[in-house]
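Below is how a single chain appears once it has passed through the pipeline. First comes the sequence as given, then the structure the pipeline wrote out for it. We keep one example in the README because the format questions we get most often are answered faster by looking than by reading.
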Amino acid sequence: MNAPTAPTPAPHAVVGDPCTIVLFGAGGDMTKRLMVPALYNLARTGVLPQDFAVIGVDLASGTDKSWCDSLHAMLASFVGDDHAEFRIDRIDEAVWQGLTDRMTYLQGDMTKPELYGDVTAALEVAQIRHKTRGNAIFYLAVAGDFFATVVTELAAAKLTEDAGTGYWRRVVVEKPFGHSLASAQTLNRNILCTLREDQIFRIDHFLGKDTVQSIMALRFANGMFEPIWNRDRIDHVQITVAETVGVETRGKFYEVTGALRDMVPNHVFTLLSMITMEPPTGFDAASIRSRKADVFAAMATAQPAQAVRGQYAAGTVRDRPVVAYRDEPEVASNSTVETYVAMELTIDNWRWAGVPFYFRTGKHLSARSTEVAISFKQAPFAAFRDTPVASLRPNWLVLRIAPDEGISLQFEVKRPGPVVDLAAVKMDFHYAEWFAKEPNVGYETLIRDVMIGDQTLFMRADMVEQGWRVVQPVLDAWAAAPAGPELYASGGNGPTAANALLARSGREWRAIGTPA
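Resulting structure:
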């Protein structure tokens, strides 16, 4: 699909407010693989404010130079790597130098009060040297068990107080936010003791992707969709988040998390809420988050019988042999942690009652693919009984989030010739054919939004708790079940039980990575 004319250039993004980002977990994988490439991109595209600084905090010893060198090495590893989420052709060394000139490293234990005295002093230096005006973002790229500890220590050091000061203080926490309903409620309660809700940014890099944000534009900027976007016209919806990567170096994290906790109450449910939310009264944060929260509240509690878990065995992925999950580093040899989950959910409101929503997510699958596939109800067959047409296929509207971002619509047409016969064809829109694509990791938009205080793309406390409410019965049932997950070969499409989940209603999954 080729653009007949060049699309209108997008308006330049609003530059963030002057500020200092304090990165707790500065030596971790998330900082190196996602946060710093995003900051580099913001600097390269002119969205990062000129008055800006970064303070890295980690337990490991190091210097400003050694920290920046390790970050540069990670950035260099993305150059020319077609399989990397963030692929670049080269590093603009002038941009990188300008960024590292504003970066400072602090070694310290985040559970010790004395560290926060050092952070206070470093913020004062940044305010003088880089004119950050006292604004600060405390980014918690650490294990969830430390969220409440860090927030408590920040508050004890008066680092989160901003009322009447002329500057702002904000805290960013990574998903998963809690590991169960009870833990999420406790975490929210503890954090809200010292922070206001408008200071808390529960981040999910998935929401920073343009194609995820485009879902609302597709729905609400096109009058053709709203009349058919309901239970009267839609048969079911499939959400797929498939990865070819395995757990790799994250075995320790994954052993206490698993695919359900890692992906479902955040990534998957957020996609689901954007597909199913009612039209907002405006595109401000309060309106959009309230509509999403309504969806979370209307989700029926998941039933264990409607959930499937799997774990990858050895196999071949992208022509490369890979080991089983239980043979990954820091994974127990008898682990029952799931690396794949499939589930059926319903939303009990007037728009969606009776429409099943199926989702699946897993690692070491046959292809990398994130998509939302909407199946419309089939047309009556009576008119075609005396023709060679054996059956009518459903119409599919497929929103491809990654890697081939776009939108496809499949429908039936008559084949050329004297006989009435049908063929499935599609209209296919590819973002890359219409818009220039900049390399990004999904955090760029979110970091800028934190800088300007826009919470549209961030989860609210009640949304987090409702997400855990939905999946808690499944977590409880799996914890009590003596049998572990079904094993599936790496490089395949997941456990066979996932197929049975849809077969009960005469449906089947779309092939992973297959165009509409």
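Residues 370 and 401 are 5 Å apart (CA to CA).

See the next section for the split statistics.
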